[in-house]
């Protein structure tokens, strides 16, 4: 495997690199705010994850064949566009999704949910390097990672927020399942989902939404993520990291497969009108 790998090849939206022998890094760069479009997901992120897993598994098998006790290590970092410190990702591109009836009915269950399931059960440690604002679907993506490193917001504001309640989008079942599995109690769930609270980095750390805060720019966030990667990459060595996560999050992964009918405010109101 040769790096960097830019995907999709014709109009790259993500770039995969290997900064160390046991670390892979996916950079999101769909414009300045790295919206999670269907093209970025299907032709960028998913193929990048496949490439990482294949490379890691090739090394894992070789290490075990040679009885190399230090082989098989691995960790993955996902970061927003480098060279800016404003966005990790601004979430989903719902305007495009809603404008296409076919995409509207397929995006959540067959594109987004399968990406989140892939991350939630990925076979090596995953680290979200949150280098700026992280909204809505992007926050879900970060929660599906095993660790979250965030800028401390001292040089410019950075918010962590599920803001669907503020722009009239209901939650798919998958979002609720991930939130319940990953963080907090009912009070925090209410604050995240129903209030759409904008967490500052210190508030996100206190709430347990992120694991570390970093002072500095995107490269400082990546450096801390690399430090975490170095500390946990040995956990992938025996090949059970992903298998354990499959059991740890079994209920969540199964629930994420139940999103079939996309709920909208208009649909809910039509049902209520018929009933009342």
Structure notes:
The strands form two sheets. Strands 1-2-3-4-6-8-10 form a seven-stranded mixed beta sheet, sandwiched between helices. A three-stranded parallel beta sheet has the order 5-7-9, covered by helices on one side. The chain has helices at 38-65, 94-99, 101-120, 137-143, 164-167, 173-182, 186-194, 201-207, 218-232, 241-248, 250-256, 265-275, and strands spanning 5-7, 14-20, 23-28, 75-79, 87-89, 126-130, 133-135, 147-151, 160-161, 212-214. The chain is globular, with a radius of gyration of 19 Å. It is built from twelve helices and ten strands. α1 packs parallel to α3 (101-120) and α6 (173-182) runs antiparallel to α11 (250-256). The model has no long low-confidence stretch (mean pLDDT 93). The longest helix is centred in the first third of the chain and has 28 residues, at 38-65.
Task: Kindly summarize this structure in a few lines.
This protein is an alpha/beta fold and 276 residues long. The protein has helices at 38-65, 94-99, 101-120, 137-143, 164-167, 173-182, 186-194, 201-207, 218-232, 241-248, 250-256, 265-275; strands at residues 5-7, 14-20, 23-28, 75-79, 87-89, 126-130, 133-135, 147-151, 160-161, 212-214.
């Amino acid at each position: 495997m040769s790096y960097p790998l830019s995907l999709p090849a014709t109009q790259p939206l993500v770039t995969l690199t290997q900064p160390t022998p046991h670390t892979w890094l996916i950079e999101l760069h769909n414009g300045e705010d790295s919206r999670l479009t269907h093209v970025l997901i299907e032709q960028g992120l998913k193929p990048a994850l496949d490439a990482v897993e294949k490379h890691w598994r090739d090394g894992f098998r070789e290490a075990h064949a040679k009885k190399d006790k230090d082989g098989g290590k691995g960790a993955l970092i996902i970061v927003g566009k480098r060279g800016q410190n404003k966005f990790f990702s601004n979430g989903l591109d719902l305007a495009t999704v809603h404008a296409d009836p076919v995409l509207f009915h397929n995006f959540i269950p067959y594109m987004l949910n399968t990406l989140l399931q892939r991350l939630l059960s990925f076979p090596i440690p995953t680290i979200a390097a949150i280098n700026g604002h992280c909204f809505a679907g992007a926050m879900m993506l970060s929660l599906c990672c095993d660790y979250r490193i965030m800028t401390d917001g001292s040089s410019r504001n950075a918010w962590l927020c599920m803001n669907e309640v503020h722009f009239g989008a209901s939650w798919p079942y998958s979002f609720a399942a991930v939130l319940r599995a990953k963080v907090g109690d009912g009070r925090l769930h209410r604050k995240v989902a129903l209030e759409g609270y904008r967490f500052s980095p210190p508030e996100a750390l206190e709430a347990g939404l992120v694991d570390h805060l970093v002072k500095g720019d995107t490269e400082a966030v990546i450096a801390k993520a690399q430090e975490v990667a170095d500390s946990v990459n040995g956990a992938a060595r025996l090949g059970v990291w992903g298998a354990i996560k499959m059991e740890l999050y079994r209920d969540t992964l199964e629930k994420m497969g139940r999103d079939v009918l996309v709920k909208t405010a208009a649909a809910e109101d039509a049902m209520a009108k018929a009933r009342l």
